[in-house]
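To close the section, here is one more complete example, presented without commentary so you can practise reading it yourself. The ligand is zinc ion.
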Amino acid sequence: MHTDLVTALDIGGTKIAGALVDGSGTLLVRAQRPTPARESGERVMEAVGEVLAELTASPLWGRASAVGIGSAGPVDASAGTVSPVNVPGWRDFPLVERVSRAAGGLPVELVGDGVAMTAAEHWLGAARGYDNALCMVVSTGVGGGLVLGGTLRPGPSGNAGHIGHISVDLDGDPCPCGSRGCVERIASGPNIARRALEGGWRPGQDGDASAAAVAVAARAGDAVAVASFERAAQALAAGIAATATLVEIDIAVIGGGVAGAGDVLFAPLRSALRRYATLSFVQQLTVTPAVMGNDAGLVGAAAAAFAARAGADGAVPVQV
Ligand SMILES: [Zn+2]
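Output:
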């Protein structure tokens, strides 16, 4: 039978999504379950199994030749294991082996969720046509991935480009990762909200104290809210400038809930980037919002599977 599809899995702390995906990135069949993140590792795997069972029941299943997984991290692609921070039941969990077994022995490609998002934006989104890109997710955490020389670069363990945990404030606040002053500790949604509250900003009558509510206040001119976004933008700009200086990227794509703040984030980000990205070879760097939305994880997992399959066939890997 013609094996022109791949199976994609997007595994996060709130949902486990799956799809059968064709070579143009179209999601032909979908399945989804909530992640029982506070339950045992086996119970979480059961939910993954339910998603896969729905996909294998599809008449299109026979056309799938590989599985791509984008998982919350850290992941260890070389060992085939995952240890997502927000799924405590999974520590060094052998996800690749378990998914391959549930998928009838198909080969499985595992990448971190930031790398998956990057693959999606490069294949069909805002980084399409760029050979050197940093793509980032700024939401509850901050993650990312790299495309260099036209090729996705997940690194040996599948985590390369994890810009959220590079330090941009040498003596800054302790980060849950163990370091100090990480980009995530300054720029994630919860930290934007925390800083606004500490500065005296108060939520409206609906009690919404999220970064999205701080963004609404910033748009209305609230000085504390504006300052909190400016600080986040500064941290992101420093991280992007460091990345560009290190490996020469042409574009930085930013997705995730915090990117939904729009100009409240992007205007100070572009301004700060001019201060940090100073050398001639990084001055032309473009910063732009992601466009792939909620399906980025699935599309990116599919892209990783297509690329791995092409490599295994001895062909030139698909340039995702
Ligand atoms: Zn950190």
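Once you have examined the tokens, check your reading against these statements. The radius of gyration is 20 Å. The pocket of zinc ion is lined by residues 165, 175, 177, 179, 182, 184 (CB under 6 Å).
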